[in-house]
Amino acid sequence: LISSATKSLRMETEILEKKLQDAQVKLAEKDGDKEKEIQSLKRLISDLEFQLTMEKSNNESFLDKLRKEIRHKSDELEKLTQERTQLIHSLSQVQEENSLLQDTVRRECEERFELTAALGRAREQVLELRRLSGTL
């Protein structure tokens, strides 16, 4: 009975040891699979971090270009605004000069008209004087 029980326990122990070995093998395989998955995820994270770094670099470069372009456009706008102000000032001066010239022309025309009228009167007086001296 003891021998049978011992034999039975040995067989059970062997079965349990076999199950333990199988479980250890499966555990080792799972650990290996998990380690592979961890390494794969680490590579993926590394790749994504690299892509993120590249994207940040590209974005910063793009932003720098945009900032430079904005500065350039701002300078251009300021220059054009100054030119516009100068042109408005020049236009104002030209309009004043034009107005002054128009007034001068108007006055000269009035003077000419007056001189023409005076000349006409003087001619009439000369003719009158000639007639009077001819009758005398």
Protein model, in words:
By secondary structure, the protein is mainly alpha-helical. The protein has one domain. It has 1 helix and no strands. The radius of gyration is 57 Å and the shape is rod-shaped. The model has no long low-confidence stretch (mean pLDDT 96).
User: What composes the largest sheet?
Assistant: none
Helix/strand/pairing class, anyone? mainly alpha
H/E element sequence? H
Determine the number of helices (DSSP H or I, runs of at least 4 residues): 1
The amount of beta strand, in percent, is: under 5%
The structural domain count equals 1
Coiled coil: 63-97
Keywords: Coiled coil
InterPro entries: LEKR1
Protein name: LEKR1 protein
Sum up the structure in keywords.
rod-shaped; coiled coil; 0% strand; 136 residues; mainly alpha; LEKR1; LEKR1 protein; single chain; 99% helix
What are the SSEs and their pairings?
Blueprint: H1 2-135
Quick overview of this protein structure:
With 136 residues, this protein is mainly alpha-helical.
